[in-house]
Every structure is written in structure tokens, then in C-alpha cells.
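User: I'll paste a sequence; please echo it back and then give the predicted structure.

Assistant: Echoing your sequence first, then the prediction.
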Amino acid sequence: MVENRAQADVSVVLLGAGRVATHLALALVRAGYRVVQVWSRTETSARRLAAPLGIAFTDSLDAVVTDADIYIACVADGALLEMAAAIVGRVGESALFLHTAGSVPMDVWRQAGASRCGILYPLQTFSMERAVNMREVSLFVEASDEETMAGIERLAHGLSDRVFRADSKRRARLHIAAVFACNFANAMYGAAHRLLAEDGIPFEVLLPLIDETASKVHVLAPRDAQTGPAVRGDVAVMKSHMDALVGDEELHSIYALVSNYINRNR
């Protein structure tokens, strides 16, 4: 069984070569796992990830090795079912199948016939241009049974100091929360960038404000850390802001919606 062998003896195939797969590959190699192959739909992507690490690569699912211990799918949610169906039947029953998606149930593997399967979901935003310390990333795991869970948790603890169990329902809620905390917040940075650019003001002037806002929620509940005109109920300031946004329907609507939300939940 995988969980009874040293990490160096555990062979891993990565199915995908995007941002998650790239950071995961680096973390696996650092932790001593033997990543034996990378698959991607394009040879260019597969080579870009595999070549610097000295790993074999392929752009053909038919060429994916069938004797690895662990197969980790890091692909778009919509591609997981097709991926699982193409891989599971070719691989031995003792293999462990994992995916890294936040909103896709573990059953995608069971539907494809896998007996040992689970989830390794990293709650983090990944970019190719920035290194991430995987040991600080929260990893959420789920498994088809307790014996398999032991192996997945061993793998997860080899990568991160923050490992938690979460079933599909809780993981979906986590994913929604992450969209609000990360994706929506970053979209608002983009809106601020555009507003400043219209008057030739560099976005960098906001960085100390952004950093302090993020730092505060390490020690305060978000509700306690909230500042600004909406939480104060400062109608005059909010009206002046809304007036300034007339003509920009999207930002005008967003400002009104978010201000109302803050005011109602203060």
C-alpha cells in the first residue's frame, strides 16, 4: 500500500500542467515524492512543467503510465469526468486517484470505476509568476474510506502544515467563500486601478492600504475590521461617490450593492 512506503518510493503522475499542477509538482518534489510523469493536453505545457524537473511528459492520455501509485488531476472542473473515464480503466486497482478541484465531488472518480480515490484541495490562489510556500497553504482532503484517508493525509502532511478534512458539501462552501475573499477582492483591486488610471494616479499608492486591510483580519473579525462611509452610515459621502460614478453603470451598481450590504451587516 502507498501509505506504508517511504515517500521516495511513491510514484506520482500529474494530470495537468497549469498553475495548480506547477506549484503542486514543485511541492511534491521538495517533499521527496517521485513525480514520474506530467500529462497535458498540449505538449508545450507538459514540457514547460516537466523539463526543468527532469520528469517525463506526454500530451496523450493513451501514453500515461499505468503503474504509478498516485494520479493527481489538476484540470478544469468541466474536464474531470472525461479525464477520469479515460484514465481509471487503464490503471491498476491499487492506484490512488485524486483531484484538486473545490467544487467537484469525489464521486467523479467512483463514476469512472475507481476504488481508491479522494480529494486534495489547496485553498490558495496560484500564479506562474509567484512562488508559494505550500507548507502554509490550507489543504482540504476527502477519501473514499478511512484506509485511503490515512494515505491521503500522509501525502497532505508531507506538503503542508495545515491539513483539514472536508466533505464535498463543506468544500463547495469553502470554494464559494474563497471566490468572495480572493477573486472578488482582486476584481475590486482592478476597479480601483481603473479609477486611478483615469486621473493618472499610480495604483501603488493603494498598496499600504490593501496590505493593512488584509493584515487586520489576522487579528480581527472582518466585521470588526470594517471601516468606511457605509459602516458609518455616512450618507453624504456615499452620495458624492455615487454621483462621481454616474456614467459608469457597472461600478455605480457595485458601489450601491456593496455599500448596502455593509450597512445592513454593520
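The mean pLDDT is 93. The chain is about 45% helix and 15% strand.
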